Amino acid sequence: MKKIFIASLFLCTCGFAFGQGNVVAERTKARNFMQSGDLDNAVLVLTKAQETYKDDPELLKDLSLAYYYKGDYNKALETIKTVIASPDCDAIAYQIAGSIYKAQENFKEAEKIYKEALKDFPKSGPLYNDYGELLDIMKNPKGAIDMWQKGMQAAPSYGGNYYNAAVYYYKQQDDKIWAIIYGEIYANMESLNPRANSIKKMVLDAYKQKLFISSDLAAVAAKEKNEFAKAVLNTFAKQSGISAQGITPESLAMIRTRFILDWFASYGDKFPFRLFEFHQQLMKDGLFESYNQWMFGPVNNQAAFEKWVNEHKEEYDRFTNYHTSRIFKMPNGQVYSVK
């Protein structure tokens, strides 16, 4: 988790420093030390750089991170508080402060800092995500999912909130669809993240253990209060017969193909949804079977997936070229789990 945290913050912060002369070189040198685990040299470089570039907020954030990874939370907090108190404070500074408080298990102060941060940066997806993770640690799962859903609403193209929402819903006894939907969105948003494979496996398990384990999906749909969820369940109910063959990448490709055809015949206008529109486009381009293999094949059976790819190399290469040349983004207004 720390490696993911540090990498994401470096990506977010590096853009602020350009145009500041050699400060960029000093930060790069320190980040290289940090990523290699040489935290003492990272602190040394950043401390020396601070003598030349007084109160540079990017240097201070990096220095706070270096102290954080050393486990020197007091110095890390002292350093980041300087940034938070300055006019140059940004959402990332609050993220760092929140992580330090969490590491200290000072959850009261962590919650206070997140509340303060969201007043200043109400559109920050990472802040909602981190606050939700704090509430989850504090054994407040309802508060956590509320934050993650607010994060999806405020910043629909930030992936972390979808990941945590998917995991939350997967743990719920009665949930049938939200783990599947939010998990697949995350897998497309952050396909190169190491967590993508685990979330694909979770989505596959959710199809097997939650959705199609029900003997009468139409009856389940009839009891559903959320209109979007009801529509999804009713549409999947039409394909329950195929699930009797077992849930595999091949059977899911058939089920999901028929689902998309039925969805756009009945609900597409009422419930615009980017994920389903993406599926529809893949079908039109003849890439949907390859997409389903990409989504479920490796986590279902690696050997069978490799065999399928070898037998459909041209088709899968076309899909890979298409998928790697685009960025999957969710638009505003499609967090239907809160409607």
Write up this protein:
Residues 1-19 form the signal peptide. Residues 27-124 form the Ancillary SecYEG translocon subunit/Cell division coordinator CpoB TPR domain. This is Ancillary SecYEG translocon subunit/Cell division coordinator CpoB TPR domain-containing protein. Keywords: Repeat, Signal, TPR repeat. By secondary structure, the protein is an all-alpha fold. The chain folds into 2 domains: 1-155, Tetratricopeptide repeat domain (Serine Threonine Protein Phosphatase 5, Tetratricopeptide repeat, Alpha Horseshoe), CATH 1.25.40; 176-339, no CATH class. The protein has 20 helices and no strands. It is elongated and about 70 Å long. 42% of the residues are buried. The model is unreliable at 14-20 (pLDDT under 50).
